[in-house]
Amino acid sequence: MDTKLKNIRVAAVIALVGAILLSYGLMVGEDFDLVRDSPEFEHSLRAQNISQSALSWARHLHYTAVDPDSARHDAYKEKLAHPHPFYYYVKEGVSAATTNVIVTEDVVTFFRDLPLTDFVTDDKTGLIAYIGLAEPAFRGLAEVYYAERARALVAFYYVLGGLLLSLFGVALSVVTVWRTTDTAPVRKLLWEYIPLDLAFAGLVGLSPFGIRVMLDSRRLYLDVLTAEPLVVGLSTAVALTLLGLLWVNMAAKRLKRGEFWRHTLLGALILGALRLAPTVVSHRQGVLFCAYAVASIFLVLTFVFVGEAYSLFASLIVLAALVALNAAASLYVVNHAKEIQSIANGAETIRRGETTHRIPAKRHKDLNAIAEHINDIAEGLERAVSSRVKAERMKVELITNVSHDLKTPLTSLIAYIDLLKKEGLSAESAPKYLEVLEQKSERLKTLTDDLFEAVKAASGNVLVNWEVIHVPSFLAQGLGELSDRISAKQLDFRVNTREEQLQVRADGKLLWRAIENVLTNVLKYAVPASRVYVDAVAAGDDVLLTIKNMSALPLNTPPEELMERFVRGDEARSSEGSGLGLSIAKSLLELQQGTLAIEIDGDLFKVIMKLPRLY
Questions:
Q1: Which of 47, 34, 46 lies closest to 114 in space, CA to CA?
Q2: Beta bridge partners of residue 441, listed in sequence order
């Protein structure tokens, strides 16, 4: 808090110093046009204006020379003599020249040698007019010009420096208030209870008065050159600066807290009107209502004023406008009510269970938003119902499939155990029965392990040990371990890893388990003595591992269903598979931030595994 106050005080001091410099420069500066004028007097606008005026006076002096007693003639002669004595020479046609010099040489040469000269000639009338200043008079004018220009430059630098300092002080104050102001409400100071718009209006109202005082003080100071008017003007500038800085800080604080609009009189009136409106009315409706009320009051007052001051025709025009406004408002209210009723009817339809029903779009923005929200809810309900139905169907199929797959080996176990009991272990068929019992036990164990593995992988309750895996070497090693099963099936594996630098970040055991499940699916369902294509390629930031084979059985099951649990490629369920392999592979890849997809084209079965590539 101390740092905040210190920074605000520093900013206020900087702004006040800038305001004092700015005001001082404005008050003591007499002619700021000299700042833009030439630094050389002979090329300045003042010199040009002096010479042009003198040239005009000389010509008028010549034209009035026929009446020596003319007051205008004497006045022009006085202007050419004071305060700067000009040489002049004017002649037109064959008339005698009007001049105050005795030219013993060429006129052009004489005036050309003067430091400040000007001339005009007219071939049609034979007019020749020259004016010029002597060197001492020119030096006097130049010295006055340079002194005034120097004072103007100093005043201008005061103004410029003061303006920059003031802006910097105000900016520093705003930044300090913005950074240190807490968004939580705090106890307000006395002046902070004044609405911001009223405070701004008061500041704008005081500004012309303060500027008037400063202008009067400036004029008085330039006349008498005493310190009193200067002090009055600078004090006024300081007061206005303090008031402006205080308002800027208040506005910045309100903006930071999000309270600017609420702390204005206009905002308080509008918010109060909105609070009085029904709760179903949106802010937009409140604004429209306020606009309608203001327009109606304005038209009624205009109708009364026009009826008293103008003709009947003007009154009828205002009355027609008032009727049109109310007709438009009535039409708006009726359409609004119809759309609300339409939304209510649509919501009732959806509530009755028709989740496919959709409410049409509405013209009013707020009502259309409500309709869209209700439609979104309906879509969510529809998806939830569909998902629930699918989950129930899958649960029934799961129970049926688990029962069927577990019942088959259990039935065989019971049957062969019963045969052993009847025939005894010494019977000739006993070894065969024991072999079948072993096969069925292994089958039952495999089904149980696959079931638990599928549930565990789907739940995500698997520890992933991340490591860097070189995909080509990983595939070569894995296919080598399956070489006996591949040879028994007489399958020709065509492995293509065009890019050697294919690396992924994964768990080696989990990744091989997923790939092995896919390859096991290939060994079960591929056409014997056919080719299997294994491609590993880079695709942007991913590594794609594609395995393609020709299915020995017709593929009548959609790809998305083949990855569900207990779904097999053979609908007769005659194979030894559990229908869990692809589902397990998909879950394991998802644990490693990968994906698994299936594509079917006729009898072509393609599995695409994707993993993030490691560079």
A1: 47
A2: none
